């Protein structure tokens, strides 16, 4: 095959030069990549024959008799060359083709009997011009082929370098672990001898790992050899040498003899035979390269995984299960093998174990042939597995949860599957995303699980799909998920888990988004009005998201609207979700005459029948035919007049409304105290991408790309079974203008730099899933998606400090590409006009967070405070650990509700983790079973929080693909609440103080005790769960050990979030360090929180780290602080007190409870003994160093500036109320200045 490829590189230009030159009188020759090979800009080979550009055969001048005589001989020659038997044939053909252009052309014309029509002088002039054109063409060939070879070799060298460095790192780890001195042998035989010599010196686990390394290395060597032999037919040296000889003045053999050789070789073949052979070569070339790439990538993934498990010191939780396969069944065993339960039974013959360690198995799939789509059986859910939870895609953009048992099939396009195995065991299955292929799980009748693997490009095929599904098991479902996603990240190397990313500071402030307030009709005055009203109500926004509507966009020519579209006179409150006029409403407005009756009937038939029919059903097929052949223009007119979905980006610069975007941003920050301004854009630029014909956009070389679906491609992705409407949306009609991956970094860099120059702090990157359907010709959906997402993240990191909200991004191709960005939307939109959507929205965000929360901080979306479901949404956001932002229309607010979420300075009381369902709710259908309540748990910096919700009555129906509300009078439910619902929240005495926000009542509960709370439809409550601890040496009135627990603010949803730190101590902590701390920093600079100082002042010398997000006693950290004061120094300062704690007497008989808090109003504590005294001191920042500058930039404060804030604040004695164990302190009212309302409190008891 390599020999034949070389022959083609040498032979084909002659035929193309002769044919094209004769018929077109030697007009400008086309570039080489449009003749033979489309030189890969994305690592993918594309041939002109794949694009159905047939090769023109050489004009026949030989008689039929001569052809017949030479046919057999010619075919034999081609076979010899294809088998690599004729080495000289390649050199001869290359010399013939690449020699003097004029002699070649004249000899070819003479041999073919073509008589020139020009006069002799004209002929000589033509020959000179021809020579120059041919030499120009040959230089193009040289440059493009050399560039391609360099790219392929560069890829190979990069992979080999990565492999070798990885192996070296692993060797070093092994040598450190087993005192093994590793030396690389010179040959495989010596290496094998070394293995044998080491066998007796190593422990069994190390020995097995050494054997595994050897097996992996052999597979890599094989993959590298295969990739080299298949993908690099000519070396750079060969090309350079050949062209130097061809373009030089050295003598060559007689051109007629060479031409006769070429004629004898090519002429006996008909044009169809030539096309067939070239097509076969092209397919073998491409598919062989793809399979080699997949195998090489899989090998690198294996090494990366094993190195990461060692070097990152991944901890395996107690209760992690070992996994093994026996007799076609996969088992999980824990507790030393005492407990063993099956995970999968009747495993499919196409599934194989690609790699494994003790706690994880990576399954691969081997198909029967090279295909772009594979469907294989994984196995069946065992009878002992009682229930499952899946997160499956409900639309192209979003996924939603489903629960069931083995009698119910797992939904199509499942991207996350959790099984309850029985005996307290759980298993998780994660479909993976490889180099060019993605996986998803599909259930069938009879509890069988299938894996569907697809590339998103019919020309990207493979037979073997390694690393298709990850399987892990354990006894703690939450720790299991954390471990499984860490293993997936280590394996793929394309994303990082949430714990390894920086927590964005934007999560801790209240925000406002313009979307549901204005949709794309937003204007600067409306933005100012909205921010002004929120500030007047006492809940100022510190984050603005300027959503869709600020960019320069337009429809394609022929559908452009001179003046406002159909939405111009429609208020935002009357528009449907997405800011559009519903198709039915638009039809009723446009189709008003008698002749429009057929169109109205067609609209009714679509909404009543087609929308609810499966993709392959007859109604969908009829509608699809109609959309492309009858009503295409009518649908495009609707999209152009009633939506934004058919528009493209026409310029990087803002539109005429926001032409002064920089001035507007500075004004908003100055007038309203904004700290962050985000702007919206789609991953492809806009909904239909970039306009290739727009002035100034040509520098990014955008092209129109159609989704990889019928009728544009002979390909039917599994996504169409979930969302058939993708087959007739605007992208299917007119395509998407995409920037090629090689230029996408330039596009994002220019876009984000312009936003940065305007004072914008971040972006909301929307419509990300669209790119997953546009990978044909670019290596498939996973490859182009990874290129886009990584380019976007790099640009955001460079220009906008990494501030990005990912949206409409739930395909795993997107999620498994998030290396740096740390926020992503958790579900479909908040739909103000869709009553059935609100309980489902809460259900979706909570259960999707199980999956998303291991990769990013899930964003539970905006809501509107003056809405029938506002309290439900507000309660959910308070326990979600997510950002809190609304999309209220100006003057339409419920400030009583907002003040339970937002403090007067614009900060929020955010829980610390992604909010997830409690363990007893994991597999419960809290929307449809009629009896169950949803419970959501989370942690605060001190204590825990538990949200309870009645979501019964509505759900997402995957059959009709819409929200349904079968019961308009949903039932009341009872939530069974227990402190053990909050995971990993220990109490010293096994008791807890639980505060009900709705009922305003404090309960004392044991760890396993339960309390029943009745909830009406859409009713919710938020419970603060505070562990109780002993006050050592303090007795209550009964003579028992005194108990104590800080609870939180009474009037806030998540009142426990007001407690920023807490410790109980009996003496002054570390007096030696006190003088040092007092001279350096004052608690005022800390904004009262462990992390707010980093977020508020952006200290360059104190980078934020999320690895210390728990309260750690100072005693445990002093030695580390003294040894290395530069590392996390601000965190240590934040843990210590900057002035001596108050005392009851000079004797050390005082027990103290020391806290830092923020907020205003009633602060609740539980104490079985009345304190003797309460002392307090403000931690309020009030320095110019802490205020925003006139330009609206966030200030930078040095240590000396912060120290200047300190002053000599003394402890003040405060009053408090104490009754029946409830201790209440009234915090003073806060100001609107950000960072105000922070206090340091110290309760004092006298020891007995």
TrEMBL record:
User: Which controlled-vocabulary keywords does the entry list?
Assistant: Carbohydrate metabolism, Signal
Its taxonomic path starts at:
Eukaryota, Cryptophyceae, Pyrenomonadales, Geminigeraceae, Guillardia
Q: Which Pfam families match?
A: Raffinose_syn (PF05691)
Extract the signal peptide range.
Answer: 1-21
Matching InterPro entries = Aldolase_TIM, GH, Glycosyl_hydrolases_36
The record's EC number reads 2.4.1.82
Catalysed transformations (reactions): alpha-D-galactosyl-(1->3)-1D-myo-inositol + sucrose = raffinose + myo-inositol
Q: Which family does it belong to?
A: Belongs to the glycosyl hydrolases 36 family.
Q: What's this protein's name? A: galactinol--sucrose galactosyltransferase
For this chain, one GO molecular function annotation is: galactinol-sucrose galactosyltransferase activity
